């Protein structure tokens, strides 16, 4: 009896550790340099009404992730393999865009990590980028890479959220007004909603948690309830960070301060707590960027692992190469802003088509077996697909016009 209890306790701890690893992989992947900048800029523009944007994006994000995580776990297959079963060759197309998009965004993530080290220690951004890449690569070199990655991103998530909450308290934001405007906003910015949804669950982030669960052995119909809870928890963790940053910036701009357009998040932290605040921004930027580097590399490579036995066998070294190429690109050409913008716009269309494909798969017995996907979730998923296709197309047309004008 004691042996059974011990084994059950160890199994429960292991299962919980795996689930939290997937939760934080998705959450920290979405909290990158772009996340910090977008939240700061939109808060300064919309003020307390940005709370409404956050609320709507949280609901849409939950619709997306609960659908995706449940279907992947029930099918016991990665996103690209499910897509290929729905329509032969579709998985290869998804993989191409996700890997290219992940690589492009990882250049920005590496740059953000370099900036964080620059703020903390005064060394050059490029040197900081190399150091950060080395730390990320080391995680995948060690024998128990999966466990080390899970532990690192969980610690990174706790640190960045805790420090941002501290800054929010320092700024004494008008919480009452924020609550009211979250329910009854002065203005509704649809583009801001789509930007937040795309940044939180778009591109490779859509599949980060689900793929991590599969790699950890959490799969099958019996694991669907766990996947559901984990997906919602991941969105809530991301949302806590978003709300904390929103309140921190709101507290600054509500006092009449203006953010530096070159680095709005950094100026918000500095205005909130002086030089200490600026150093805290460095820590938050570094942890956000490095965790995104890890999440982007891990998930992007997971999209090609099933295409070849050799890739599967050597996937850790391909992840390392992915990080190395991102770093080399940043050092040699910097952040290719126009390319990042266009790839980001194209990446916004991955979400609706990927989600739409998985929703079709959810109702095919040859893919999900005896699993019954709730009609309510399907309806919510279709709603997100339609909305994001419309707004994604609008974004691409506008961004392409800006680039080529």
TrEMBL record:
Keywords per UniProt: Membrane, Transmembrane, Transmembrane helix
Keyword Transmembrane helix: yes
InterPro entries in UniProt: NRAMP_fam
Superkingdom of the organism of origin: Bacteria
Membrane-topology descriptor: Multi-pass membrane protein
Subcellular location: Membrane
Annotated TM spans: 46-64, 85-107, 119-142, 151-170, 190-210, 231-253, 280-304, 316-333, 339-362, 374-397
Protein name: Mn2+/Fe2+ NRAMP family transporter
Organism of origin: Bacillus chungangensis
Classification lineage: Bacteria, Bacillati, Bacillota, Bacilli, Bacillales
């Amino acid at each position: 009896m004691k042996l059974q209890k011990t084994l059950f306790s160890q199994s429960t701890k292991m299962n919980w550790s795996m689930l939290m690893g997937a939760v934080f992989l998705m959450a920290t992947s979405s909290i990158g340099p772009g996340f910090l900048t977008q939240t700061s800029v939109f808060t300064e523009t919309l003020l307390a009404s940005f709370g409404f944007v956050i609320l709507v994006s949280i609901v849409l994000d939950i619709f997306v992730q609960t659908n995706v995580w449940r279907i992947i776990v029930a099918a016991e297959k990665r996103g690209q393999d499910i897509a290929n079963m729905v329509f032969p060759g579709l998985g290869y197309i998804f993989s191409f865009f996700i890997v290219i998009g992940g690589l492009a965004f990882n250049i920005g993530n590496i740059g953000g990590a370099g900036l964080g080290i620059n703020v903390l220690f005064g060394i050059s951004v490029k040197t900081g980028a190399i150091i950060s890449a080395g730390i990320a690569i080391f995680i995948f070199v060690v024998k128990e890479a999966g466990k080390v990655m899970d532990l690192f991103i969980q610690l990174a998530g706790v640190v960045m959220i805790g420090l941002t909450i501290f800054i929010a308290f320092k700024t004494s934001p008008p919480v009452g007004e924020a609550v009211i405007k979250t329910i009854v906003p002065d203005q509704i910015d649809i583009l801001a909603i789509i930007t937040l949804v795309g940044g939180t669950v778009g591109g490779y982030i859509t599949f980060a948690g689900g793929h991590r669960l599969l790699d950890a052995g959490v799969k099958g119909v019996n694991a669907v309830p766990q996947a559901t809870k984990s997906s919602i928890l991941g969105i809530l963790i991301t949302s806590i960070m978003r709300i904390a940053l929103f309140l921190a910036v709101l507290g600054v701009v509500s006092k009449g301060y203006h953010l530096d357009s070159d680095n709005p998040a950094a100026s918000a932290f500095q205005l909130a707590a002086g030089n200490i605040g600026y150093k805290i921004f460095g820590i938050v930027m570094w942890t956000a960027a490095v965790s995104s580097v890890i999440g982007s590399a891990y998930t992007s490579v997971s999209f090609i692992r099933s295409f070849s036995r050799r890739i599967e066998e050597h996937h850790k070294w391909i992840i390392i190469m992915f990080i190395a190429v991102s770093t080399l690109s940043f050092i040699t050409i910097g952040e290719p802003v126009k390319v990042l913008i266009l790839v980001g716009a194209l990446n916004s269309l991955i979400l609706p088509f990927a989600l739409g494909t998985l929703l079709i798969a959810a109702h095919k017995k040859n893919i999900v077996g005896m699993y019954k996907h709730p009609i309510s979730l399907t309806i919510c998923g279709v709603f997100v697909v339609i909305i994001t296709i419309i707004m994604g197309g609008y974004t691409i047309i506008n961004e392409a016009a800006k680039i080529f004008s």
